[in-house]
Amino acid sequence: MDDYLELNRANWDARVPVHVGSAFYDVEGFKAGRCPLRGFELDEVGDVSGRRLIHLQCHIGLDTLAWARLGAEVTGLDFSEAAVERARALAAECGIPARFVTADVYDAVEALGETYDIVYTGVGALVWLPDVTRWARAVAALLRPGGFLYLAEFHPFADVLDEETGTTVTHDYFERGPHVWDEPYTYTDGAALAHTRTMQFRHGLGEIVTALAAAGLRLEFLHEHDHTLFRRYGTLVAGDGGYRLPYGAPRLPLMFSLRASAGSASPPAGDPPGASSAPTE
């Protein structure tokens, strides 16, 4: 646990040049006007014109800059300096105004020094954080009264099933980790990585929602989706901008999205009853 942050940062630093050159991220397509945001995200977030938006764990900034193209005043935050440097360069190349800051998400309040109308967190982010209670408090502290968090993520239930068929339970839903992985390649096309080990953490849906409620946020909606962004199981088929089980098969929740708003009161201080005791950096 003491090494998780540096272990993961080295891995994500190594991913930056691979991802920038990958077909998966299609940076050249983005420069030409492609929008990387998913359709349901655009529908559920709504109009962002003139609103201040912070993207936590923004990586190379494609989604961040996509929100800027839609009219938001954007800031992106990531713990990888290599990713932040590339995001800044991309913003300059595209002529898109944006601020990018290097910091761990748990230090976001101090690093940013301001509040926002929208906190946005895209897919594949929470697995890198050991403590979602602490994350939720940071989110609440970043929001202006009346602002909201929008989170789109892979559904934690999808992690318990076998990768070949997606029909057999092979993992314990309530086992949180940490899980140490040693994988030579990232999830995109491209060369092998110089730093291959990562430490990841599972979080159940109830754990995430409870953390947000304990931080003083009000849940507006929680939507579960029957599609995902990659062929998670061998049986998934491509279609409608994602991957899903074949027509006629029983459907599974593969992604979820939620929106939670901040009221006028400050988030509660101290640890709420039943708060996670996971170590943090």
From TrEMBL:
Protein name: SAM-dependent methyltransferase
Residues that span the membrane, as ranges: none
A molecular function GO annotation: methyltransferase activity
Region (Disordered), start-end ranges: 262-281
InterPro entries, per the entry: Methyltransf_12, SAM-dependent_MTases_sf
Organism: Nonomuraea aridisoli
A Gene Ontology biological process term: methylation
Methyltransferase recorded as keyword: yes
Keyword line: Methyltransferase, Transferase
Residues covered by the Methyltransferase type domain: 55-149
